[in-house]
C-alpha cells in the first residue's frame, strides 16, 4: 500500500533556531500534502495544504511566515518551523492522498515530535 | 471544521465487539465517512470508509444509517492492541481536507 515517510521522528532544538521536517510519498506522486499539528491529549489540527508547484494554503490562525511550506516535487513537501519557541513544541504530522479522486483515503506519516528548549 | 461528533471515551471487554458511534447530521450527498485510529505518538492509521452502503474489511465493519446522518464502526473482536483514539471524519470541501474532531478514546479491558 501507499506509504508516507516523515523525517525526523524526533527533534530537540534551542529556542530561536529553525527546524525542517520532511514528508515524502514513497510509492506514489502527491500533488497535494497536508500538514497537521497535535498538542498533548488533543486532536489533530490541520495547519496547511501543501500544493506542488504553487503556494501553500494555510488554515485560519496559522502564521505562514512562521511555518514555511515548500512542495518542491511530486514526492516531497517540507515544513520549516522558523525561529522556534517553546510554544511551538508539538507533534507534527503530514499526510497525502495517493490518488486524485474525492473518495481517496489519506495516508499519514509517523509524525515528528518537536521539542523546543 | 469537523462535521462529526463522537463520545469522548468508551470501554470494551477484550474479545467482545466494540461499537463506536458517530454523528454527522450535516453530511452532504457525495461526502464519504472515514474512520482512522491513532495510537499514542503515532500517525493516524486508516481503518475503513464508506458512502452509503455498509462496508467491511479485515479490520472492521462500517454501518451507515439510511439517512446517512450517523454511522457505527464495529471492531468484531476487540484486542488490547485496539486501544486507541478513533476518529470519524467527513471530508470537507473541494480541497478534500480532512478535519479531525475530538475522537473517541477506546480502552479495551482484559
Offer a quick outline of the entry.
The complex is a heterodimer of chains A (117) and B (110). Chain A has strands at residues 4-7, 10-13, 19-25, 32-38, 45-51, 57-58, 67-73, 76-81, 90-96, 107-108, 112-116.
Tell me what you see in this structure:
- The complex is a heterodimer of chains A (117) and B (110).
- Chain A is mainly beta and 117 residues long.
- Chain B contains no helices and nine strands.
- In chain B, the strands form two sheets. In chain B, strands 1-9-8-3-4 form a five-stranded mixed β-sheet, with no helix packed on it. In chain B, strands 2-7-6-5 form a four-stranded antiparallel β-sheet, with no helix packed on it.
- In chain B, a hairpin with a 4-residue loop joins strand 5 and strand 6.
- Chain B starts with 8 loop residues before the first strand and ends with a strand.
- At the A-B interface, strand 4, strand 5, strand 9 and strand 10 of A face strand 3 and strand 4 of B.
Number of strands of chain B: 9
Query: What helical percentage do the residues of chain A reach?
Result: under 10%
**Average pLDDT, all residues of chain B:** 92
Number of helices, where a helix is a run of at least 4 consecutive DSSP H or I residues of chain B: 0
Terminal CA distance of chain B reads: 36 Å
Oligomer: heterodimer
Tell me, what's the shape of chain B? globular
Strand arrangement across the biggest beta sheet of chain B: 1-9-8-3-4
Number of distinct helices of chain A: 0
Rg of chain B to the nearest angstrom? 13 Å
Largest sheet of chain B: 5 strands, mixed
Secondary-structure-derived class of chain A: mainly beta
Shape of chain A: globular
- Largest beta-sheet details of chain A: 7 strands, mixed
N-to-C order of helices and strands of chain A: EEEEEEEEEEE
